[in-house]
Design a protein that fits this description.
The chain has no helices and eleven strands. 0% of the residues lie in helices and 52% in strands. Strands 2, 4, 5, 6, 9, 10 and 11 form a seven-stranded mixed sheet that branches. Strands 1-3-8-7 form a four-stranded antiparallel sheet, with no helix packed on it. With 122 residues, it is mainly beta.
């Protein structure tokens, strides 16, 4: 089992920044792909960014150049730095983990955090 706990959500104005953090415990963190998903109200959960154990990174097109994913295997944490936030970034953000490769299907991820709300006001 891998237990994930997110923190860092909140309310911010358009153009502002937030940093989300996910702390993992349980099995060897460095073996897992770590990802951030988000779920806007009334919409499906979507992959925002992912980082492999080799530090390969993926970003969905809408956040490229604005968001940065990073991981610290020694501390078993994965962060998402979000800059130039837009109202369309408003969602519940989830940290997720899976073995293997970065994938866009939420069903392929074995472990999830409880989610943290990010609200961007216009």
């Amino acid at each position: 089992q891998v237990h994930l706990v997110e923190s860092g959500g909140g309310l911010v104005q358009t153009g502002g920044s937030l940093r989300l953090s996910c702390a993992a415990s349980g099995r060897t963190f460095s073996n897992y792909v770590m990802a951030w998903f988000r779920q806007p109200p009334g919409k499906e959960r979507e992959l925002v960014a992912g980082i492999s154990w080799r530090y390969n990174k993926y970003y969905t097109d809408s956040v490229k150049g604005r968001f940065t994913i990073s991981r610290d295997n020694a501390k078993a944490t994965v962060d998402l730095q979000m800059n130039s936030l837009k109202p369309e970034d408003t969602a519940v953000y989830y940290c997720a983990a899976r073995p293997g490769i970065i994938g866009g299907d939420a069903q392929d991820y074995d472990y999830w955090g409880q989610g943290t709300q990010v609200t961007v006001s216009s």
